[in-house]
């Protein structure tokens, strides 16, 4: 715009600026309105969807996971509060709270056997037994979600990865790198020997025994002096599924 | 001795460390608990009453995983049963153990129910142990000592009277039900 001299010119310019601002504000407002309308539509559609597929969401683990992913994309957390519209609508909060309670139950009941560390797959199997459903109806994802909700209780529930396995920890044991290494090594046969630990990690005998004794004291390991080679074996119930604790190694 | 087919052994029986006494207290407690239950269940299913520490006993070794209990371990598990009143040493050296998979009191009640059901107000000791009515009940082949103690308990309570039978080696019982 060409600048014109004089007072009238200045006033003109100010008026023009005002007009532009008004128009701009209008456009923004219209956009926001449209957006809000779209969001409301989307939300009601999502609610409609959730209502319609409520039983699928509760029953089908794959569907459940996809629903969670969809919610995460639009920034809705259906588990954020049990009083929220989502939870009320779906009872999906109840699903995870119930699952959480069952997980706590199982972790406590098996603690004297496994020292408070349980294989996620084993946990799922026990959960399905308890719920009288088959393994397919309850995914690892469900368990992990329920466990993440348990963290709020400050109860020390945590999922740790050891080698290929995911283990759920229900006692506040601090596992250091040495311990993790041993647990990983034990996954091959269910047990380790001092010799094997020394050789695999090139540790001194003292270091190997130290780590194994700690695991023993924590209730995570059990000793076995019964093999005919006379070497003490340290077994780890947390990496052995109860269903396949057949001791197939014994012959080796 | 052989294991009868209809007894399902628990998972832990196939897990080698359960055959070694565990040094850590909590783990040991769990181990002892599992063995106690297994011994009681097994004896009940096989109707066994006496376990001798010095003889082979099918539960105390598992050839499949090549593990067996040490003498000390057997003694620990049986002693745990003894301390709960579920077993008794029958010799001073603790080499033989009477397993009470039903307590004497429970046996007494069981006998009373059995007698009522079958209308056996007057019977003999031998008939209780091996009569036709006894077939298929817990009483089949009951240890004579255990049976006598249960009957004496009933006698004390005024629910039975033991008397000499016609033959010298058999005694009769009259129940008041």
UniProtKB/TrEMBL annotation, chain A:
Domain of life: Eukaryota
Keywords: Protein transport, Transport
Database matches in InterPro entries: ESCRT-2_cplx_Snf8, Snf8/Vps36, WH-like_DNA-bd_sf, WH_DNA-bd_sf
GO term, biological process aspect, one: protein transport to vacuole involved in ubiquitin-dependent protein catabolic process via the multivesicular body sorting pathway
GO cellular component terms listed in the entry, alphabetical order: ESCRT II complex
PANTHER family: EAP30 SUBUNIT OF ELL COMPLEX, VACUOLAR-SORTING PROTEIN SNF8
Family, per entry: Belongs to the SNF8 family.
Listed name of the protein: Vacuolar protein sorting-associated protein
Originating gene: LOC125510232
TrEMBL record, chain B:
Keyword Glycoprotein: no
Entries under InterPro entries matching the protein: ESCRT-II_cplx_Vps25-sub (IPR008570), ESCRT-II_cplx_Vps25-sub_N (IPR014041), WH-like_DNA-bd_sf (IPR036388), WH_DNA-bd_sf (IPR036390)
Domain of life, per lineage: Eukaryota
An example Gene Ontology CC term for this record: ESCRT II complex
GO biological process assignments: macroautophagy; protein transport to vacuole involved in ubiquitin-dependent protein catabolic process via the multivesicular body sorting pathway
Family: Belongs to the VPS25 family.
GO MF, one example: structural molecule activity
Pfam families in the record: ESCRT-II
Name of this chain's protein: ESCRT-II complex subunit VPS25
Residue intervals passing through the bilayer: none
